[in-house]
Amino acid sequence: MILAFAAGSFMISCKDSNSDQSITQAEQEVAAETGVTYTLDQENSSLKWKAYHKGGLDPRFGTVKSTGTISAENGTVTGGSFVIDINSLTTDPAAVDAAKSGGKTSADLDAHLKNADFFEVDKYPTAKFEITKVAAFDTSKDKSNIADANFMVSGNLTLKDKTVNVTFPAKITVSEMEVVLSSNFTINRQDWGLTYGAEGDVKDWGISQEVDIELNVKAKK
């Protein structure tokens, strides 16, 4: 599921208008994975992140890899568990213009995000997302920018040593041989205590709290 944001001299912009706002709450009980189990197809799945500065300049974006399984029964996802490899976090070189960043490159940003200022990959090499609930999308109350969104997915997202439950709209199709899920939603990094320096530090103030997550999941039987 995961997740990164730009920091320091990498200043960021306002969030993608196509991204849905997620709902967060305390950690919930993980759903039992009943029915048929499908395994994530890494080659045909993606987890993309996009992070911002205040002021609308130079968003940073990239990818991170994951593994996992998802289960479904009677055409509906029942559960799933995914491990996100934070060491695989990569910033797209197109997101960083060295002429604007004082010579910094996407590789420099990758290294910064993985050090003790942020994800501390030496101590926390992975993150985790575990589905807690999948409910039908209710058009009378649920809103989404995703065309044909048909479910609301809730899950416990663990980053470093904190777990928060996140709910977001998704389009899910279940067939005999595969499950396909797509979603684009926004989280607030401070819900997981992810800050650059102490609270109120000017370095952290320059970074938007919002991070967009785009999921394109294919899992096969």
TrEMBL record:
<dbReference type="Pfam" id="PF04264">
    <property type="entry name" value="YceI"/>
</dbReference>
<feature type="domain" description="Lipid/polyisoprenoid-binding YceI-like">
    <location>
        <begin position="37"/>
        <end position="220"/>
    </location>
</feature>
<dbReference type="InterPro" id="IPR007372">
    <property type="entry name" value="Lipid/polyisoprenoid-bd_YceI"/>
</dbReference>
<protein>
    <submittedName>
        <fullName>Polyisoprenoid-binding protein YceI</fullName>
    </submittedName>
</protein>
<dbReference type="InterPro" id="IPR036761">
    <property type="entry name" value="TTHA0802/YceI-like_sf"/>
</dbReference>
